[in-house]
Structure formats: C-alpha cells, structure tokens
Amino acid sequence: MVSDTTSVPYAGPQTFTGNRALDLEEGLLFEIGRTEVTGVDVPEPAPFKDRLGGHARTAPLELPGLSEPEAMRHYVRLSRMNYGIDSGLFPLGSCTMKHNPRLNEKMARLPGFADVHPLQPLSTVQGALGLMGELSRYLLELTGMQAVALQPKAGAHGELCGMMAIKAAHEASGSKRHVVLVPESAHGTNPATAALIGYEVRSIPARADGTVDPEAVKAALGPEVAALMLTNPNTCGLFERDVVAIAEAVHAAGAYFYSDGANFNAILGKVRIADLGVDAMHINLHKTFSTPHGGGGPGAGPVVLSAALAPFAPVPALVATADGLALVEDQGADGAQQALGRMSAFHGQMGMFVRALSWMLSHGADGMRQASEDAVLSANYIRACLMDVMSAPFAERPAMHEALFDDAWLAGTGISTLDVAKALIDEGYHPMTVYFPLVVHGAMLIEPTESESKASLDLFIAALRDLALAAKAGDKARFLGAPYYAPRRRLDETRAARAPVLRWVKPEPIPDAAE
C-alpha cells in the first residue's frame, strides 16, 4: 500500500522516539525484526528425501524475528491503530457493523462447539447438529421459506448459492435462460455473482424516488431472463413498496426472484419475505444476527429457498433419521436428488451458528422485532438531525436502517465527499460508506444499527454538524489535508490500487555527509 508517512503535526515538541505519549509509533516487522532472533525454538528437521525436484531454496530465507515480549508488544501496538466496533460507533452503510454480544462469544467457546471437528462420527456431534437444526428452524420461521442451506461462508457466497440453485432449476426444466436483471439500487455484489456463473447482466434503472418501477421490470422481462436480483430494502435505504407486483411479473415470465438479504436487519420480525414472492435470499449472519464482521472471516451466509427451489439446495443437507440427526452428504442420495452439488468442503461455520442462535434466543421474537425497529429509528434520527446542514436525497420517504446523503451541500466549497470522510477520521470515527450507492452523486451512507445509544448518536451527529458548518464556512484546510491525527496521513488511494507496493524492500542507507 502506497502512503504518505509524513509525521503528523502537533503542538508539542518532537520526541526522540517518535512516540507521542501513549500514541506509540511502530515499524513494520521487516524494519524492526532481526533474522537471528525468534520467539520459538524450532528443532532441526530429521533427515528426509528432497521431493522438490531441484526447486528447493538455497539462499537463506532471512525472515525477521522478534523475541516473545517484543512480538507481544509489536502486535498490541499495531492493534491500537485499528478501529473496530468495540472502539466506537462504526457508521459504514450497507455493512451493518453492530455490537457482538459477549454472551455469544461465551457460548461459542463451550466444549462441543469450539472443539468440534467436521470429520467426527455423526453420533458424537448430535448436539452440534441439533443446534444447526434449531438455527435452521428459526431462519425458516423468520422468513417463511421452505428450505435453508447453511454451508455458504459469506454473503457473496450465499448469493452464489442462491443463484446456482436458480440455474440448476432452469437446467432441470430444460430452460436455456441466460440473462439476469439487476436494478441499479441493488447490493454491489449482485451483478458480479450473476456474471460469475455465466449469466448476462442487464441493469434496471431506478426511478426518481430511488425505487424500482414494476413497469421497467416488465419491459425487461422475456423468455431469456432467468432471474431478477433485488435488494430490499435497497441500497438507498428505501423499502421497495412495489415488490409484490415485481415478484408477480417475474414469476409470470417464468423467471425466479432472488432477494439480497444484506438489509434484512431493517425488516427482521416485521416482514416475512416469502409473502413478498421471494424464491431465494441469503442472510448475512453478521449483519442481522450479530456475529463478528470483517477480518477475513470466518463468516456465514445461509440461504433460504422457496418450495420451488428447495429440491435444488446444496448438500450436505441436515435430516432427521431413526438414529438421530444426519447429514446427507452425496448428491443423488435420498432427499437430495436434484441438489446443485457442494458449496464448500464441510457443513458451514459452527462458531457463527452458535453466536447467531445465541442472539436469537436472548432476544426472542419481540426483541428481534425491536432490534429492527430501533435500527430504523436510529437511521431516521440521524437523517432528521442533519438534513438542515447536509442534503438528503429521497427525503420525502422515511429511511429504513440507513441514512443516505449526497454531496449537493458541498457545492462551491472545494471540498468533496472523500474530504469529509477523511476529516471524520480526525474526529475519532471510521468514515461512513462513500460513493455508494452509485445512483447518488457523492453518496454518504450511514448505518448506525440498533446497538448505539442516543448519547452515542448525538455525539456522532454533533461531529458531523461541526464538519458541515466548517465546510460551508470555507475551512478547506481542515478537510483537504485530513486526516492529521491518524497514525499515517492520507493515502493516495488511486495510486495504491493501480501500483500497489506488496513487498517491503530495505531502503538504501543514507551516506554520511562529507566532512
């Protein structure tokens, strides 16, 4: 990653160490490590036969090492440079960065869940299978659907699963449909998922109020269309009020209706998606049911399917037998005659299942409904408190669980959406989602979730109001050079994406000045 590592200006004197009190400077492992040091003793290998065909390394590996206390300090110091949901409000829109209750973590660490192995005999993991069955029951009850696949490891993987089920259903009927319709207001991964499995993607424009027009869908439908992928509520933070009419049109044309479940947190306990005509929907457990988000995993994106698609769910499938719960492992076995195949090596992310079910049980039906109501309330509160200083498109309609602003309020200031996001870092917040959804120019998408208190929301709102007033007052320096107080200054993001530096190279020594 290319960055400007210029020291951050501050009022105090320069320090010898580069540290600023408890704000500690920390170099890369390659800069501070030593090749002759390691915190772990590794024995010399026993004699072995070289099977690398002459490709074995001959030069020293020269990996940098640290002693055990140095390694501990190194990674603790790096961790202090991160921002996470345990640090403060995390306003990323469309990402649902909600609190991860510690009760969930305690449950996931129980013996029998934390140490379960996917190759254990089924007779020894009946408790784990029972939990998976109970989670499946809750997901089906909450959505009104007929079948659920737990294997997908993330939302995009779940999208892939749902769309593969749709493709398998068409192939089973002999249909050669090859087009998928994706509205402009859909979640960003939808067109990529459809294209990945060989579909041609056609876009449906959003109408002026940010929603999808059923007439535009009808005009795009034809015998070549396999499915529509719709996000509801959509990425503009709006509920698609014509969703039933859209579903009816899709089904009348012989296509399937895929609903992106990224924003299920807004309608949990309020809407049964089966009643909307949905055939498949993935559910991001982190977005709606509080499992950890980010960090490369582990994730979970179960997919719920309608009766029409249930026969095409992937294996393994959880079934009840006379001997207890079992997993149907092989395509073609009883109960999986038309299965699309296998989505992953094993059965899903057990730790995420435990965490999600813990959240469901601790909240109950009324608590889950209140969670979605509070998420929507928080978003509308933020929007109402900022609309006099920031411009909000589609303001004539209530927002769902996220508040959307554009950059019209920045006109004439010389300040961009990106500049506002960078200045927000100096205020101690991770920036909101910027420039998405694409249908709104200079978009700023804020999702507070139900986890935040009113005091937390009020402080965030006050910080944004102060930035908005400073921008309108012409204080460009506060924005164009931000962040000033982060461990590193503003990245050249375009250059970093186009010419990433992925390998550290020891800098050339600086020669001593001549006498």
TrEMBL record:
GO terms for biological process: glycine decarboxylation via glycine cleavage system. Keywords: Oxidoreductase, Pyridoxal phosphate. It catalyses: N(6)-[(R)-lipoyl]-L-lysyl-[glycine-cleavage complex H protein] + glycine + H(+) = N(6)-[(R)-S(8)-aminomethyldihydrolipoyl]-L-lysyl-[glycine-cleavage complex H protein] + CO2. Residues 41-61 are annotated as: Disordered. Residues 371-467 form the Glycine dehydrogenase C-terminal domain. Its EC number is 1.4.4.2. GO terms for molecular function: glycine binding; glycine dehydrogenase (decarboxylating) activity; pyridoxal phosphate binding. GO terms for cellular component: cytosol; glycine cleavage complex. Residues 166-294 form the Aminotransferase class V domain. The glycine cleavage system catalyzes the degradation of glycine. The P protein binds the alpha-amino group of glycine through its pyridoxal phosphate cofactor; CO(2) is released and the remaining methylamine moiety is then transferred to the lipoamide cofactor of the H protein. This is glycine dehydrogenase (aminomethyl-transferring). It comes from Xanthobacter dioxanivorans. The lineage of its organism: Bacteria, Pseudomonadati, Pseudomonadota, Alphaproteobacteria, Hyphomicrobiales. The gene is gcvPB.
